[in-house]
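Appendix B, example 12.
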Amino acid sequence: MNTPKHLASSSPTLCALAVCLALSSTATAQETGQENNGGLEKIEITARKVVESLQEVPVAVTSIGEIQLAEKGIAVLTEVQQFSPNTTLQRSRGTNSTITAFIRGVGQQDPLWGYEPGVGIYIDDVYIARPQGAVLDLLDVQRIEVLRGPQGTLYGKNTIGGAIKYVTKPMVGDATFKAQATVGSYSQRDLKVTGQIPLIENELYFGFGVATLNRNGFGTYLESALPNQDRENYNKDVTAARMTLEWEATEDLFLRFNWDRTQDDSNAKGGFRLLPSLLTDAPVPGSVFDSYTSLPTENEVELDGYSFTATWDITDDFALKYVYADRESTSDTNIDFDNTALRIFDVPAYYDDEQESHEIQGTYLGDNFKIVGGIYYFDAESCGRFDAILEVLGQTALGSPGLTREITGCSNGESIAAYVQGAIDLTDKWSMTVGARFTDDEKEAFVNNGLVPATIYPESNWVPGFSRDEAFISQFTPRVLGTDTNGDGILDAAAKESWSRFTPRVGFEYQMNRDLMFFVSYGQGFKSGTFNPRAQTNEPAASPEIVDSYEIGMKSDWNDILRANITVFSLDHEDRQYITALPSDVPGSLNQFLGNVGKSDAWGIEADFTYVATDALTFTANVGYIDAEFKEVQRFNAETNSFDNIADTFDVSNTPEVTANLAMNYTYSNNLGDWVFNANYYYRADYAINEEQNLLTQEGYGLVNVGLNWYHPDGEWYASLHVKNLTDKEYLVGGYQFVTPDSSDPSNTALYTPGLGGDNTLIGYYADPRTVHLTVGYQF
């Protein structure tokens, strides 16, 4: 079991983004974007928004196709991180449907409403703006692409770390149907059904997919203040549905309409107390998956989305595409920060997000150049409410029946951008990539922030017996973020701010021969400016974050048996946005401000190798190294009336110095059918969980996964058996810290100073333990 940083190591939390895959043993090379002629696969990707070979694209990309996803047993998005160097994909602490994504040390850890992550997530060219609800269950995935480094030209803002793309399969051919069931550890019971029906042969198709994904908890809520509730911790209860209508209207016009819905009723996740509570006599649990709570364990996330895509091939060389999308998500979540049966520090919250986007894109393929350009419009509204309940503190310190910091508000944004990027052949061997994007961003926000001398919840009966008295609460929740337009001293309008940014990209490529290319590039990305959703004063918005990235790379195939793709990069990350406690506040204080206070840089190397030993045996290796550190973090010093650089108290979180993966895949055929055996070993060096004064560091660890796949000779039946985390490693992937070590002896946890709520709150969230999964499927 891991322990606090000042004692030794720390602890884990992994996971999430179940990717509900329709796994097909008879998928063609065109369906998966891969071709195999007995040697190295030709992998097709759309990293530059046109179909190209992986080996032609001067971008660091990991692409995992449908067949690979099936044979490796990848059912959860977080598992993709194993095959992409310098990449972190995890389920956010305390919730089941919020993603934490970091690439090359760049991401966003705080998932409060209105915040936009530094790694962009796309589903069929549709941008998913919020980390909330980004843990999506998808059907009929053709491939997943991970683009590392800023993608500020073609993908725009909020891709300063990189982008993750889900590409779903188009429909072709006759009617198909597939049913797949999985049983496994912790009473896993999944059922997935997908299919397509040609309404008009080779012209109009209807596709569908439904899934129910269930699993008991890895642990238990040992004690709860509420009777008669589900005590499972880290369980899963997800249903998902998807419908698609595709129409090949003419040889040149293709139309697609998509609808999807996900309902996640998994319990709220309870964290593991790494220190004994000062206010309760409950012992530290014996399992890292066990917890205590004073909140309801129920949790609900609902997501709905639809999109429309029209592609018109005007000529053989020129095509237009229009993409419209509308998505909504709501979530009720309960985060018990202290993880005790007392209301020491409870945070029930509600989120409501809506987004709408339009994109018109043109592509022209000339004799010696390719050009992609377009216009993009995005409109989003993100609102929420959370109640930071410190009932024990209110009763002991203030004599009131409770104490709640209630914060509500909205952050609405509108963005329009124009972009163009071209790849130009200068000679037979030299080519050039040049692009630019201009973005105009506008945001408005308001915040109600008040300290209420009572125990309150977002809605009446959120916890049985507690009701909201809006008239009583309103006198303690003044509007603190906005403008006084008429001078009467009352904030009567939302705060507004706008930003414009030009983000360029330029690169040169040298094609030494058909199988060997070198490239060098510079690219810039920016993450949108934003307002502080926890504001206590009418503070200004934080400006955008800027990342400048430089890369030198090689794409190479050797004798059709060895592929070696290597990239060396460096990046400068300016104006990092941070919400931090004021210097005079106690640990964990909610009196926080937002500003551009950070600057960091990083350099590293990423290498992807594939070795085809025989027609039946293939080895792959992925290695990443990164040296990332803060260079400047400014904090105001009231005594000197100046700013101090406290960079030495900050860590670049979720960024191990080394990530490595070694995998093998072996195929064998006999009278019973085709057999595929695979195994991989994945290593992550130690990494910090939090950025500011981190107390939780996960030691380096390795994971072993093995799998066996079987395909019936007639192609209709298939099965697989996968064992994940074979050695049952415990490792930390998230946490909360609301304590401060004594400066005289930081290694002695008994000397910790309690934080918000008056307790020793140091909490860890963990990744999945060892699990076994048996899948059986039938298709025609």
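The longest strand covers residues 430-452. Residues 391-398 form the longest helix (8 residues).
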